[in-house]
From TrEMBL:
<dbReference type="InterPro" id="IPR018095">
    <property type="entry name" value="Thymidylate_kin_CS"/>
</dbReference>
<dbReference type="Pfam" id="PF02223">
    <property type="entry name" value="Thymidylate_kin"/>
</dbReference>
<comment type="similarity">
    <text>Belongs to the thymidylate kinase family.</text>
</comment>
<comment type="pathway">
    <text>Pyrimidine metabolism; dTTP biosynthesis.</text>
</comment>
<keyword id="KW-0067">ATP-binding</keyword>
<dbReference type="InterPro" id="IPR039430">
    <property type="entry name" value="Thymidylate_kin-like_dom"/>
</dbReference>
<dbReference type="InterPro" id="IPR018094">
    <property type="entry name" value="Thymidylate_kinase"/>
</dbReference>
<dbReference type="InterPro" id="IPR027417">
    <property type="entry name" value="P-loop_NTPase"/>
</dbReference>
<keyword id="KW-0547">Nucleotide-binding</keyword>
<protein>
    <recommendedName>
        <fullName>dTMP kinase</fullName>
        <ecNumber>2.7.4.9</ecNumber>
    </recommendedName>
</protein>
<feature type="domain" description="Thymidylate kinase-like">
    <location>
        <begin position="10"/>
        <end position="195"/>
    </location>
</feature>
<keyword id="KW-0545">Nucleotide biosynthesis</keyword>
<keyword id="KW-0418">Kinase</keyword>
<keyword id="KW-0808">Transferase</keyword>
């Protein structure tokens, strides 16, 4: 059986350079002759995505529970597309995924396990690269504060949740949910960050015979709220 392509997720705090690095990675894969597709969440082109876009731009107000479920539904809209691309041999690079949804909603005070539940059984990434940057450094970058969540206290809280997710994803007993989670220092130069990311991506581009995993399937934690 031919190997499938890897599923790579890029996460990070706002203004960590995440979107730029996603594009750079896609270009590098394509230059190496590797079929690759960039997906961005939220996907603001769908009907659900347009509702999310208006919310993020503070053009509308929605209940915290509702916006969380909309973010999750937006990911489910593309779940079958992700699986099809991987089986066809196309590397999927995702700019944000379920981890962002949990981190931002839990930072607003919603229970951690409740935030995770709607994304259970989504396709699990083979590699998650988390671009870590202090909120202070992010604030110094252009465009900071243009969207709803770009506030220092919020970003500090989000960062703490990402640390928890990193420990969980690299922990024991995750079964099909387990994937490599690598933290990259995003305060480096853009080229240094790109090289650090490529060092982890390059060994995977030959594909894998592992079945596509399922996020958190059968691996709920017992500590219910945080």
């Amino acid at each position: 059986m031919s190997p499938r392509a890897p599923f790579i997720v890029i996460e990070g705090l706002d203004r960590s350079g995440k979107s730029t690095q996603c594009t750079t990675l896609i270009n590098r894969l394509e230059a190496a002759g590797i079929p690759a597709k960039l997906l961005k969440f939220p996907d603001r082109t769908t009907t659900i995505g347009q509702m999310i876009d208006a919310y993020l731009k503070s053009q509308s107000e929605l209940d915290d529970h509702l916006i969380h479920l909309l973010f999750s539904a937006n990911r489910w809209e593309l779940a079958s597309t992700i699986e099809r691309l991987l089986r066809e041999g196309t590397v999927v690079v995702c700019d944000r995924y379920a981890f962002s949804g949990i981190a931002f909603s839990a930072s607003k005070g919603l229970p951690f396990e409740w935030c995770r539940a709607p994304d259970v059984s989504l396709p699990a990434p083979d590699l998650t690269l988390f671009l870590d940057i202090s909120p202070e450094a992010a604030m110094a970058r252009g465009g900071y504060g243009e969207e709803r969540y770009e506030k220092r206290e919020m970003q500090e809280s989000v960062r703490r949740i990402f640390v928890r997710l990193a420990e969980e994803m690299n922990g024991e007993g995750m079964g099909d949910s387990r994937s490599a989670w690598i933290t990259v220092d995003a305060s480096q130069t853009m080229d240094d960050v790109s090289e650090a990311m490529w060092a982890h991506v390059q060994p995977m581009i030959g594909g894998t015979h592992r079945p596509i995993g399922r996020l958190w399937a059968g691996s709920f934690s017992s500590d219910a709220t945080e």
